[in-house]
């Protein structure tokens, strides 16, 4: 066995992997995860202190966020010469232990250089998409890549189905807009400085103001999020519970990295799922009961490159990695 494959992992190895994993997207950039390096492996733990109690009382979006970080870690591990065996929601552990990852030395993946670049390049670009249409086959391919990770993913390409999504997005936005507690919760995370949350500099309004809509995209018209040539994918699972949410998060990360490689932007659209009435209609009418929706994502082209877009901050590794 070559010497490099025989070398045991070090604290520096774990730190590098966690640093890359934490580049994952999370709801309101809350970064709701803790990583703990223990004898049986690296534990991914849900940080409930970062739960959005009003918008996400069940923790669906928190766990999806952790699932995205889990996929980021697996991608980083394969690129850096590690085989990552993942046990999701291991029995006998605290329920907040979402996964245990056991690392062994391996050859780096053939796409290592590209994958590491994509991890560092991926970002949430909330600026308005162009009107250039996104071909349906592109959306279908992204959905197919997401399904590899154990989640359901359905591309919404039919005109009638897209119209229904528009109606549901608009209805969810209208219902949420009248909830002052949700607005107060958003205000604690959006438009703030520091190592978490969403800075005003990355918001799509020119002055970083926060009108009543979710991040003020398209002049507050939530239905406009899925108009024109945008692609829409519904992610979900067989149930509305943590093991399925975790898989949806992994699928979200896989879809996002694949879209980034294709030069596309991805923006999650969670409001239709956060509102119980629109979530049920998504499941029963749009999806015909085939699976439970956990998240919608819109995908499109940006006229301006990402290089000039400020990145959302990240918590120091020392805050999220425990020995």
UniProtKB/TrEMBL annotation:
Q: Which InterPro entries match?
A: Nitroreductase-like, Nitroreductase/BluB
Name of the protein: Acg family FMN-binding oxidoreductase
Coiled-coil regions in this chain? none
Q: Lineage of this protein's species?
A: Bacteria, Bacillati, Actinomycetota, Actinomycetes, Micrococcales
Q: Which domain of life is it from?
A: Bacteria
């Amino acid at each position: 066995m070559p010497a490099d494959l025989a070398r045991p992992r070090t604290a520096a190895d774990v730190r590098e992997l966690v640093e890359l994993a934490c580049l994952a997207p999370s709801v309101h950039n809350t970064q709701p995860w803790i990583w703990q390096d223990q004898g049986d492996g690296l534990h991914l733990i849900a940080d409930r202190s970062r739960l959005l109690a009003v918008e996400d009382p069940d923790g669906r979006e928190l766990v999806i966020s952790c699932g995205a970080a889990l996929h980021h870690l697996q991608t980083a591990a394969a690129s850096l010469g590690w085989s990552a065996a993942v046990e999701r929601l291991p029995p006998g552990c605290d329920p907040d232990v979402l996964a245990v990852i056991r690392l062994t030395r391996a050859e780096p993946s053939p796409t290592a250089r590209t994958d590491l670049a994509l991890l560092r390049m991926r970002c949430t670009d909330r600026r308005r998409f162009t009107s250039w249409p996104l071909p349906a086959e592109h959306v279908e391919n992204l959905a197919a890549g997401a399904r590899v990770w154990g989640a359901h993913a359905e591309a919404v390409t039919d005109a009638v189905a897209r119209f229904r999504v528009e109606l549901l997005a608009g209805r969810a936005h209208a219902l949420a807009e009248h909830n002052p507690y949700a607005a107060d919760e958003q205000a604690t995370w959006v438009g703030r400085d520091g190592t978490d949350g969403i800075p005003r500099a990355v918001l799509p309004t020119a002055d970083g103001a926060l009108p009543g809509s979710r991040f003020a995209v398209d002049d507050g018209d939530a239905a406009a999020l899925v108009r024109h040539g945008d692609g829409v994918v519904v992610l979900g699972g067989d149930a509305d519970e943590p093991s399925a949410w975790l898989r949806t998060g992994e699928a979200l990360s896989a879809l996002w990295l694949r879209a980034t490689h294709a030069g596309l932007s991805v923006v999650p659209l969670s409001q239709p799922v956060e509102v119980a009435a629109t979530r049920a209609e998504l499941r029963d009418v749009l999806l015909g009961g085939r699976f439970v929706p956990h998240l919608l994502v819109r995908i499109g082209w940006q006229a301006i490159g990402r290089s000039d877009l400020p990145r959302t901050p990240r918590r120091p590794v020392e805050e999220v990695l425990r020995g």
